[in-house]
Specification:
The structure is a homotetramer of 473-residue chains. Chain A has 473 residues and is α+β, with helices and mostly antiparallel strands. The two termini of chain A are 12 Å apart. In chain A, strands 1, 2, 5, 6, 7, 8 and 9 form a 7-stranded antiparallel beta sheet that branches. The first copy, chain A, has a two-stranded antiparallel ribbon with strand order 3-4. In chain A, a hairpin with a 2-residue loop joins strand 3 and strand 4. The first copy, chain A, has 13 helices and 9 strands. In chain A, helix 1 packs antiparallel against helix 9 and helix 10 packs antiparallel against helix 13. Chains in contact: A-B, A-D, B-C, C-D. Chains A and B meet through strand 1, helix 2, helix 10, helix 12 and helix 13 of A and helix 1, helix 9, helix 10, helix 11 and helix 13 of B.
Chain lengths: 473, 473, 473, 473
């Protein structure tokens, strides 16, 4: 029943596949990281240049954030921010360290735009008004004031009914590569938007900066882009490997189906027994299905990657994430697949058999726990959401509680919930103490009990022999 | 004995109830979050506008705080803070981004108030003196100085005997809704108080800003407030569901009592045995009691919610927390109740039976641990409270120690206790090492042992049959 | 053998004692916290007033610190700091919010002092030079400059051989109590020292501010200090309780010794057997010894507390810590003693018996682990100390490793060790991975195994009867 | 078979060795810490003096960093940084608190240098241009401007093709020792480099300061350096101890080999059996090998240490790390070796035997887990690297996941991955939940099961006797 005579061929293929696929992932990860880091750093540079109150502490993505949100609170500040951004845009190519160029039409630089969204008088609809800010006028002015400019154009920012304002402009960025192998620079069209968000209408106007980057063909007409030879080699190798592996697994699955049919017929004819669904499922080798899935994922991912590397079409940005998702999950499953070959050695088989054995119990048990967990989540979310950042949304509540079970920073959670209202204070204490005690001491211990039970069972099987399924009998 | 023929009806009701109740909670949580977030953001805006030394790092509720308390340390700073706040109040409607209006009487804007509490000369009593700061005078002045103003009115701030000072004023806030479905704006009366707290008399005068919000009827007389139809539907559905479920559970409980009486009589008549208290308690189905409780909680919560949504009375703010508490806990128990229906499937029953089995032992054991824990808490609180922020009060000491057992950030606790006094240093080390070693390695392991023991017992019962209670015999 | 007929009397006494002692601790903790918090806040106030570069972020004791040490790096900064402090001292009573008075002799305010410690030319000895800074001169000057003043007095700060400088002065502080029950204000003599520490001679001169507080008798000659009646009551009650309890325990211990003698004689006479040391130790009831110890601790602590509350002698500050240590540890042991009375109920006895049973094994095992732990500590300390703040000293290394076993923030430890030297990088990775894997997965699991083994043994004893000691036979 | 009659001699030697070696480590660690701390503090001082935007928050090595990287974003800032550094260098000996001297030739101070690396026009090569900044000219100028200076020398910084700039200079530092025992000051040659790094060409120019220190012979010609006597004594003692111990262990190993040969011959002659490789390996005592290794490590480390203490050659800096590595790992193994002597007591032997017993299973099992872990690592690295600082490189991904298993701050990991792209958001949630659940609940529990199984086996062996190896039979 153990199909060990087919072993050496496929194993070799799989070992080779795992190496090739991992190398491919490695190269791709480096490439992708460079790309995303460039965009991230550009956003940081622009924040420094266009946002008046930007500080480098805001560049760190920490939890909890070290700072409140960037916002303006007075009308004067609002105009100062606009003045700063407009002047920075006007002098961008002179003051910036990076290489940015203006878009221009008819030898005049394109103006930047400023738009505001208001309520109408009757509150029935939203109304968006826009104004162009000409480049040359700002450049010529010694001190440029947005307020004066708006007045001269009869453009008013009515703060009482204001919903949000946006200032946006486009520039071209040229990125020289530092490694000499591929000298052709990359060019991007950066659409930058400063957003002043007053939707909440609570006196706090949030300020943010967004950059959208799309690919541009550079001025240099010699598009001598040659893809790196090693990348191409790896791509082709991966495709071949995966297709081969896919074919062989499909063949095996197909043969297993044939065997199942003949077996069903055999049982039917000789024993007058029909096989149960679970018995029939045993013919469908879970491992082959796994390998098929990862082959398909990697093939799709590689195709997407080829598309990315050809770089012919604009706006290709969006597929980086999808592509890495396919390659990453494919790779994950390839490594999982290795367990199968380790399972051939009897001593290594324990993990897999124990997992298989305890899986149904663990799942059943998980369903019970999920009920309790869902109750705690919803209750905590409703009551604590305004008083604690970790309970802000349902998903963060889930993450917070899940983390608490696993020993996350509990005291910080306790201490931050110390609202002034004693009702909330007492509730949060009872809630957290009961949740942690119940889950950590009682429920996780039961998990342990279930798994150790399964391990003992498997060990007894090894000593006394496995129970036979009806097929084997 | 298993009452399974009544099953489909009630289960359906409960499943439906759980869905309705969860949707209700979902809608209410969003509504409440918006409300509390508005107040919170308003507090932030006002802090920026009225507090001289406010910085956005103070908006983050982190542990440990990133900053010391906001305080003034010299008399000059104190007057600067007052000047800043008074001027900001005077120009509020001009400079602020949000929509705030002054309260006014006889066409003059209401003055703001400044009060100070002193000791009297004989230290026998506290004395509070107040002064009004007229709006128009400040507005007219080019540079307004609190010190000069106080001098001109013969109002002195005697720092030597000063306990605290307060500056307060009232403004009206209008909140336009961003979603178009309910256009009627909300209006609030914001009573803002700047508190200068010198109670400790240690040269540090803490500064804080409090806002109390009460509902106002807006100027717009067309109070075309129509509650959202979906909210109303859900409210009504919830009420019906819960009442039905409550009725059915009460009926079941009542029937169980009847059964109990007849059973007691039966035993008394035929076996000359009286049933023990515990045997009689078995008639009272714990699950039905649970369902009754959650029904009652949700009904009360829904009634409160209806009150909140009608928005007719001022000062309704306070019931948001109570209402969410009732709905939240009710929902928690509803989800717990699901376990009962899962318990009908034998394989799922393990969790519940194991919990039931190990509960008495766990509780007894917990009492023992509580003694040790209380000793450590009191001792740590007394000795370490001035040297470590986590031991400041008894409740934080409890939270800190409880968190340490569960693997909280231990090193930070160690490192922050490094007082200069070597006695304290050595004590804190011995205290923490002994506490953690004892609780994590010894006591939690025993917990595990108790629960695994209960699990084994239950498993043996499944294999060998459950022991029978005297009733079943 | 179980001495249960003496039970009710002593239990009552102990229950009463625990209540009284806990109340005493509660009152004392509040009292002590107020006292230490006053000193701490005064230090914060003085830091704000006398240290030029002080910021409120430095008031938070966090790990890791949010800021580098407060230091001066140029000569100009050094003089600026001195100027700032001298001017602040000169105007202290005018600018400060708290109530501070100068010490004065002959109607002139005492001068402040400035001292510097140098190397001599030959490097053989240290030399300290001092200069007085007269109060009136600084007060009279419009802009006072330390550099000019030093020049005029021929006092030079030779930076090349400078070791450290100190600026110090004394002020009187008056603290009014906010609660009206005890109106007599407390007076302190605050000796404040600004330390400029250049011992490391690496271009960084650390700046610090120390305050030493001693008690002064206030001006007010009516020393109508009456100790609070409730505190006195509790003190007396505690003393009576503890003395009674001590007496009774001593009596019991004495009787047990008598019993031992007669028993030894009995065995010697009738069985010709001598009892082993361990058998004899069984006569000495561990619980009585525990109670005696905690009684003695609490009696000493209460005596110290009485001394503190009388407040007659100056310089009593130092006994606060000692006193709280005695009371705290005494209280801890009182609570531990409760376990004895719980142990009378058989079902509660499991914890205590299991602890007793597994203690020898746990200790033996701990010794083995200590070897491994010591090796890791010393090795990690030596190699990583300059590259990671957690490995700076041997004690922090121990705390860090101990915390890591218990699930402390591991990633932060990993990430901060990323030195530039690849040797250190690889070593730190191998070191941490091996340490955590070994201790968390292998050694802690063995702990669990030992304790569960002891629990099983005790459970078997309960089922099958305890093994008898030779005495019982 | 137990070689206990040789015991007292060697044990004594080992106990003595452990003491000596630990003392040596202690002394060396203190020495090394002082040295590295001096360099670190010098770097901090220079950062304050030469970097315009340096703040003391940057001195703390925290995770996550409290601040974004130090960088310049506009051309003006870039020149400001250079001006600041050049002026600071020119006035260094006047303004600094530490003792620094210029290098000078022909009585003129050595100039500092400024270099920039550009792309050439054709992008084919990199080009480095340098310019000297004369000391005297800057000193003479009232306000010195780098831009004007560069213009006057026809040196242009072409930002469009700029790769990086460097400003460097050399100074001599004299370090007086604070302890009087060794008065000879240490002298260092500090080569300081300010790096402006624009390799990424994304508008952000990172600024950094590096110091390289090499040893100089001081001016003082009396090189009366006498090594501390206690250090010398310890060094010599260590050498003797380790050599002795090494000799004895080698002898024992040699004898064991002799025994093996005779044993093999014996079996071969009398039983006609050849011994298996594993049986033969039993003759090679693992403990002796361990002791040999640690002796060799410590001897090498001590030799390196002697070299460091003689301080004759320049550039000796690099061996500090290597030396501490040898001594540290040697010490770690010495402590491990203690377990052997504890193993002679039968009750202490459990740990060692259990470890021995479960080792093969744990290793085999670890290999299985490694497959799963590798899959998760690669997948997480690829997909999340641009969105989360913890997944930036493969090694940090490994550390992050490994820490998560051990209960690291999970919520922070969750919360920081909240990218805007919903694909990434959902992936990161599924990824983290599945990883943690699988590893914490299932895989770690199996670890526990394996180890408790081994412990039970060993306990049974103790009760029933150990199974005999063929040799023992």
């Amino acid at each position: 029943w153990h199909a060990r005579h087919r072993f050496p061929w496929k194993l070799l293929l799989q070992v080779f596949k795992i190496i090739v696929v991992t190398i491919q992932l490695w190269l791709f990860a480096a490439q992708r990281y460079l790309h995303v880091a460039y965009l991230w750093d550009t956003r940081v540079s622009f924040s420094h240049m266009f946002l008046l109150g930007w500080e480098s502490t805001r560049e760190v993505l920490a939890y909890p954030p070290s700072d409140g949100p960037l916002a303006v609170y007075t009308r004067q500040e609002f105009y100062d921010y606009i003045d700063f951004a407009v002047v920075a845009y006007t002098n961008l190519s002179d003051i910036s360290i990076g290489s940015y160029e203006y878009h221009s039409a008819n030898d005049t630089v394109m103006p930047s735009h400023f738009c505001c969204e208001h309520y109408t008088e009757s509150f029935a609809r939203h109304l968006t008004e826009c104004i162009d800010i000409p480049w040359a006028a700002v450049r010529a002015a010694k001190v440029w004031s947005a307020l004066d400019f708006f007045d001269s154009r009869n453009f008013t920012v009515a703060f009482d009914t204001l919903l949000n304002c946006q200032y946006f402009f486009k520039v071209k960025a040229v990125k020289l590569r530092s490694e000499p192998s591929s000298l052709a620079p990359d060019c991007y069209n950066l659409t930058t938007t400063l957003v002043f968000d007053n939707d909440d209408r609570d006196g706090q106007m949030l300020v943010g900066l967004n950059i959208e980057a799309t690919v541009l063909s550079c001025h240099s007409d010699d598009d001598n882009h040659t893809p790196q030879p090693e990348a191409t080699t790896i791509n082709i190798l991966t495709m071949i490997m995966c297709c081969l592996s896919l074919l062989m697994c499909c063949r095996s699955l197909y043969r297993a189906q044939l065997l199942r049919y003949s077996c069903v017929t055999f049982f039917h004819t000789y024993y007058r027994k029909t096989l149960s669904k679970w018995d029939e499922l045993e013919f469908c080798n879970f491992w082959y299905v796994l390998i098929c899935i990862n082959d398909i994922l990697i093939i799709i991912g590689t195709l997407l990657k080829l598309g990315l590397e050809s770089r012919n079409h604009e706006g290709y940005m969006d597929t980086w994430n999808i592509c890495s998702l396919f390659l990453g999950v494919g790779n994950l499953l390839v490594w999982f697949g290795c367990l199968r070959y380790l399972g051939f050695f009897q001593t290594y088989n324990v993990l897999i058999l124990t997992l298989k054995k305890c899986l149904p119990n663990v799942l059943r048990y998980s369903i019970c726990i999920t009920m309790l967990f869902a109750g705690y989540c919803l209750c905590g979310w409703l009551i604590l959401s305004p008083y604690h950042i970790k309970f802000r949304s349902l998903s963060t509540t889930m993450e917070c509680l899940y983390s608490l079970i696993n020993g996350d920073d509990m005291f910080a959670t306790f201490s931050s919930t110390s609202a002034k209202d004693p009702v909330i204070w007492w509730f949060s204490r009872i809630y957290l103490y009961s949740f942690i005690s119940l889950f950590v001491y009682v429920i996780l211990s039961l998990f342990l009990a279930i798994i150790m039970d399964a391990y003992d069972t498997i060990k007894r099987y090894y000593a006394e022999g496995f129970p036979k399924s009806p097929l084997q009998k």
